[in-house]
């Protein structure tokens, strides 16, 4: 695991390399704004070499034709190696992305779960789906084959977790790939490539190019030898990826952002325990990983009758969240990932205040943490749909508060967004819970909870939250092509033409 301190972080055809150009990039610790690692800064030349290796491994290598049981066994070995290296990887994820070390450990657990899930999914499958052709002389079956060479472009907020959601199903299906992690947080994905090699993955199947999106990512999206591009990130970049991929008509999967509503009905707060739980979960929804979560519950939509009490307690507790370096004891929330991201968050808060929002807590940099990219958990009240901070994804520790009086109004507010990734409803009324969940246009809906996901359940969104799904059976299907094999067991002349 010393790999992250080296300049040879490009892995092509089983070999660790420097960038062809010799360029490097410093990796910055967001807790103190100081460099702590150096990686290779790849470009189009490195990308072409990686795609060439993946293409050769798919067309000529054994992996696509390896029996499913063997592929599943390798994925399970990877999961075991992740468990072995949990502490080291969790610490590295914490330092690279700024999250708490406990969040980093949980991420590694979830990565291992993803590899185990997809191993089990493919191992339990039937070899094909028999189709009744209506004749004993016809054998008809639908089989699933790997797509081919996959370009996997991952984000900076959950570096290894998001990579695993792509790498595990891609390998389970028999593909080869080139992964491009975020240039800001590439270190744990680099480490994963070492674990794949240790587990016995053949050379050329897994390749990584560390480098920026405008060179490496853009080249992967347009490359004619790439059969699928799976991208997780922002809306603007996703449009460029889709446009570039369209030229060669390759498959595209996009997992994008969200502006996720957390709807709280008054009856959820009727008891002291219910009130405390709803407030606690609203804090978790908005401020885990400093709000740098695509499914963050950044829009609190609370019933008017409990608004003042709810927001007052929420703001009081948000102000007490302990900020600091993620590896320090007692820290509950780390820094933002970069100075650029903090400046973006600050601009959203400034625009909200200019548009009439009221600041209940936060809204500034903490004075006692001047070195890193810290920003106080922020609660903005008196918000409305026309505000930029309500419409657009902030990706920071900023919670906006809207209110409603009726169930219909709550649903209308929750659905009044271009996104549709996730949402939650809090109520003690089981009938209302089912009604509201059924009406919400979001890919994941939680009832009396927020944030949990299951690897066996699909993840993705409606609208501008993306195209396709990750995880679950549909997540595996993204990395496959369906083929219909029709066999005539008793062929005879058709006599369509007289001859």
From TrEMBL:
Which residues act catalytically here? 255
List each copy of the Aldehyde dehydrogenase domain by range: 16-485
Query: Per UniProt, which keywords does this protein have?
Result: NAD, Oxidoreductase
Pfam families documented for this protein:
Aldedh
Record's superkingdom? Bacteria
Q: In which pathway does it act?
A: Amine and polyamine biosynthesis; betaine biosynthesis via choline pathway; betaine from betaine aldehyde: step 1/1
Q: Which family does it belong to?
A: Belongs to the aldehyde dehydrogenase family.
Record-linked PANTHER family: BETAINE ALDEHYDE DEHYDROGENASE, BETAINE ALDEHYDE DEHYDROGENASE-RELATED
Protein name, UniProt field:
Aldehyde dehydrogenase family protein
Species annotation: Streptomyces fuscus
């Amino acid at each position: 695991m010393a790999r992250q301190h080296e300049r040879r972080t490009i892995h092509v055809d089983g070999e660790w390399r420097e960038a062809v150009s010799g360029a490097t990039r410093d990796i910055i610790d967001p807790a103190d704004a100081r460099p702590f690692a150096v990686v290779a800064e790849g470009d189009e030349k490195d990308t072409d070499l990686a795609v060439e290796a993946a293409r050769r491994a798919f067309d000529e290598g054994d992996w696509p034709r390896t029996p499913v049981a063997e592929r599943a066994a390798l994925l399970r070995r990877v999961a075991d190696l992740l468990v072995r290296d949990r502490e080291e990887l969790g610490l590295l994820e914490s330092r690279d992305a700024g999250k708490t070390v406990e969040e980093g450990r949980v991420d590694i657990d979830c990565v291992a779960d993803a590899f185990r899930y997809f191993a089990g999914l493919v191992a339990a499958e039937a070899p094909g789906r028999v189709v009744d052709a209506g004749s004993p002389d016809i054998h008809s079956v639908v089989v699933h084959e790997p797509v081919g060479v996959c370009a996997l472009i991952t984000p900076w907020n959950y570096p290894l977790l998001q990579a695993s959601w792509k790498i595990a199903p891609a390998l389970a299906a028999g593909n080869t790939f080139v992964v491009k992690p975020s240039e800001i947080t590439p270190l744990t994905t680099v480490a994963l490539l070492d674990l794949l090699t240790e587990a016995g993955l053949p050379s050329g199947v897994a390749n990584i190019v560390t480098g920026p999106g405008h060179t490496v990512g853009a080249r992967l999206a347009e490359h004619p030898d790439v059969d699928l591009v799976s991208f997780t990130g922002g809306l603007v970049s996703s449009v460029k990826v889709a446009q570039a991929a369209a030229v060669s008509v390759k498959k595209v999967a996009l997992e994008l952002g969200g502006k996720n509503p957390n709807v709280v009905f008054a009856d959820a707060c009727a008891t002291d325990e219910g009130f405390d739980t709803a407030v606690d979960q609203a804090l978790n929804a908005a401020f885990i990983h400093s709000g740098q979560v695509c499914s963050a519950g950044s829009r609190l939509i609370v019933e008017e009758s409990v608004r003042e009490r709810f927001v007052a307690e929420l703001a009081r507790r948000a102000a007490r969240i302990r900020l600091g370096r993620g590896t320090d004891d007692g820290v509950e929330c780390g820094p933002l990932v970069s100075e650029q991201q903090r400046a973006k968050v600050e601009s959203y808060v400034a625009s909200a205040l200019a548009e009439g929002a009221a600041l209940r807590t936060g809204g500034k940099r903490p004075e006692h943490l001047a070195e890193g990219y810290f920003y106080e958990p922020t609660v903005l009240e008196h918000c409305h749909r026309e505000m930029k901070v309500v419409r657009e994804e902030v990706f920071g520790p900023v919670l906006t508060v809207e209110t409603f009086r009726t169930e219909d109004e709550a649903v209308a507010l929750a659905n009044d967004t271009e996104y549709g990734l996730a949402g939650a409803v809090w109520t003690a009324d089981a009938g209302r819970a089912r009604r509201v969940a059924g009406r919400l246009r979001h890919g994941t809906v939680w009832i009396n909870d927020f944030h949990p996901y299951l690897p066996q359940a699909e993840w993705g969104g409606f609208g501008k939250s993306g195209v396709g799904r990750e995880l679950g059976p549909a997540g595996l299907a993204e990395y496959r092509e369906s083929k219909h094999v029709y066999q005539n067991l008793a062929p005879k002349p058709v006599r369509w033409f007289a001859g």
